[in-house]
Design a protein that fits this description.
Length: 338
């Protein structure tokens, strides 16, 4: 059986200040971009309007296409190259066009098709895909997506509170919140279009990140039940991360390969999902090591346990994780029984 990164002794936790600086800088860059360029680039699904993917027989002049649409009354349309030089997407989400969807979902798309056929000739423009969403539907989809993310976060919080001591649960929840913030910053910095597939990727990342943190925290909890003479909680966290490192590397590598296959081969529609997931693999790994661990250390130092457990001892700076000794070895027996 292939075994990689076996018996490693990397010191991860001591670099938490550098990791914190990098993640704060990345989130700040995303916030600055929000301030400069405005909000998120929502798709037609959330804003309402008409999206058409068209294929020309000969590469067109974008200025001519735009002028043709303007003459037909489709003003302010977004025209972008989609894949090769012959394919383009046309987004008509001006207020008038969005309102037109309420009257008839296909009205604007037929208007665009007629204008293109008149300019370039019938049969020279092929309509590959059409999406038409009214303003009410777009608003409902946006509120539904936000509700789904909130409910998923709450269920994750409840699960972690039951599964772990509240200190572990709080650290895992804050690490997952970090992942969401960093992912939103990535979406904004790369100007990805936020569609339902991107929302699905964020929800997937929410569970993926929490799972990665839980794996490490499970090992930490197991190691806390063992005697570790001369070892602080920071050192025990490093030990636990190193022990789960082979499993983490194999899991993340497999997920990343599948995501890269989607990114390179699945086409433009699924590509935003693949971008978010590929970025999420790295973010989940980063946060489970450099966010969840240091937060747990901070919580343990501020709110140490009142019993004689190994974790309470570790919360005190300079103390080790050796079990307390009492007459007859009762302290050791109590720790082992937990």
């Amino acid at each position: 059986m292939l075994r990689i990164f076996h018996n490693t002794k990397y010191e991860f936790i001591k670099h938490w200040k550098l990791a914190a600086g990098l993640t704060v800088a990345f989130i700040a860059a995303g916030l600055v971009t929000f301030g400069i360029t405005g909000g998120v680039n929502y798709s037609i699904e959330f804003t309402g309007g008409t999206l058409m993917q068209v294929q020309f027989k000969q590469a067109p002049d974008v200025a001519v296409v735009r002028g043709t649409l303007d003459k037909a009354g489709i003003t302010g349309a977004e025209i972008q190259q989609y894949g090769g030089p012959l394919e383009y997407t046309i987004r008509a989400r001006d207020e008038k066009q969005v309102e037109a969807q309420a009257a008839g979902a296909e009205g604007v798309s037929k208007q665009i098709q007629a204008a293109l056929d008149q300019q370039f000739g019938a049969g020279n423009v092929n309509i590959v895909r059409t999406e038409a969403v009214g303003p009410k539907v777009g608003s409902e989809l946006r509120s539904g997506a936000a509700t789904a993310m909130i409910i998923a976060s709450l269920f994750t919080l409840v699960y972690l509170a039951i599964r772990f001591d509240w200190r572990f649960g709080a650290a895992a929840v804050l690490a997952t919140a970090h992942d969401i913030l960093v992912t939103f910053a990535f979406i904004k910095l790369t100007n990805l279009e936020v569609s339902l597939t991107v929302v699905a990727a964020i929800l997937t990342l929410l569970g993926y990140s929490a799972n990665d943190t839980i794996i490490i925290f499970d090992r930490v909890r197991e190691n806390l039940r063992k005697p570790h003479k001369g070892m602080t909680l920071a050192a025990l966290l490093d030990k636990s991360i190193n022990e789960t490192l082979p499993r983490s590397i194999m899991t993340h590598a497999t997920t990343l390969l599948a995501t890269l296959a989607l990114l390179l081969l699945a086409g433009e529609v699924i590509r935003p999902f693949a971008w978010v997931m590929a970025f999420g693999v790295f973010v989940a790994t980063f946060s489970s090591i450099y966010v969840a661990g240091p937060i747990l250390l901070w919580i343990e130092s501020k709110y140490p346990r009142n019993d004689d457990s190994a974790t309470a001892m570790a919360a005190k700076a300079g103390k080790d994780l050796s079990p307390p000794s009492t007459k007859g070895g009762r302290g050791t027996e109590r720790l082992a029984a937990r």
